[in-house]
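User: Some background: our group keeps a shared notebook of sequences we're curious about, and every so often someone picks one and asks for a predicted structure to add to the entry. Today it's my turn. The entry only has the sequence so far, pasted here. Could you supply the structure so I can complete it?
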Amino acid sequence: MGHSNVWNSHPKNYGPGSRVCRVCANPHGLIRKYGLMCCRQCFRSNAKDIGFIKILAPQQFGTRVKFLIARVS
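Assistant: Of course. Here's the predicted structure to add to the notebook entry:
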């Protein structure tokens, strides 16, 4: 049995290799929170359509103001 017959002979049902973005099928940078299953690039382009908005976070410890993304219910 050669190496090519053994490589990927079993399907991935668990772990990071088994999950991909539902929009572009990219396995990297996946956001799984709230069941999004969307990569970070697709999330940025579709966040408003999904129902997320940017809100200002309170300024802490003299740092710059940061943006948070919150889900609108």
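Suggested note for the entry: Residues 23 and 67 are 25 Å apart (CA to CA). The helical segments are 3-6, 40-50.
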